[in-house]
Amino acid sequence: MTTLKRTPGPAARSAFRLGMLAAAVVGLTILGACYMQNVLTTTTALYVLFALFPIYLVLAASVLSVWLGYDKDVTDLRPVYR
Prior knowledge:
By secondary structure, the chain is an all-alpha fold. Helices cover 66% and strands 0% of the residues. The chain has a domain of 29 residues. The longest helix is centred in the first third of the chain and has 27 residues. The protein is elongated.
């Protein structure tokens, strides 16, 4: 029995865009709030912004892509011929 393959549509694309925008806003808001409350120094806040924030965005994109059906598995691979 074969499983049906569905490709994500325009709603998934919009949800991914909105999810990434929300993740970025939430992350930057938390970073700004921690800086304003003097939990982070300027050096630490810049380190978090430039070193850890991109990793956070990649993780958020990974979670959203799996949840919305953009993930691929072994059955999506095709042999390459010359």
